[in-house]
Amino acid sequence: MLYAVRLVLLGLHFIAVGVLGLLLGLCRPFHPDNTRLFARLYSLPARRVLGVKVEAQVDSLNAQPPGFVMVANHQSNYDLFLLGGIVPPRTVAVGKKSLGLIPLFGQLFWLGGNILVNRENAREARRSLQLTSKTLRDRSTSIWIFPEGTRNGTDELLPFKKGAFHMAIDAGVPIVPVCISRYRRTLRLGRWRSGQVRVRALAPIATQGLTHKDTAELLQRCRAQMQQTIDELDHELRRA
User: Fold this and answer.
1) Number of compact structural domains in the chain
2) Using one digit for the tens of pLDDT, what is the confidence trace for 13-24?
3) CB distance 182 to 224 below 8 Å
4) Which end of the chain is more exposed for a tag (fewer CB within 10 A), N or C?
5) pLDDT (tens digit per residue) in 204-231
């Protein structure tokens, strides 16, 4: 019963934020902090609705000035609610073009200045990534991306796609890995207190002086650090 009530409330909340966000977005379209504002509107009330406790250890993220690439593991659509509260200032995201078709949310994604990529059109995808690199380099704006490219609820991270790492190298900006504990099997939305999630941002990884020949090594180093950290987060929560 509680599970069903939560889903209904979450749906109503999603619609309400879409309407409110659309009004705010139309008043200041493409403002560099729109994405941060929309993410918080989605996230903070939703955590209470879901009964989830989110512990964020993100000092390295907050200490980094705008103009970097964030990479995070992606588990489900709940990531919007669980990770939205930590989005730093002047941040946009890279998402698949189909996100723009979701009523209200798609319009907010566009008004936030986020970048929609058509992965089925290689030329258009490359053009979008070039635009993203320019945004990083010239506008002091950070980019949030899920390098696995799709939702993944397994214990092992999927192979990372290279786009985020090419962008960071092209712009000469650091990469900040953000790890969220595995929650898909542990959250119990039918309970009053449905569970705990832990988020940890790692130390920035510098890219200055690197070339595209270094992409594979950089990608693997980042993935290994994130895999180790996610395993540690799960172990910590099991012991808590």
Assistant:
1) 1
2) 999 999 999 999
3) no
4) N
5) 999 999 998 999 999 999 999 999 999 9
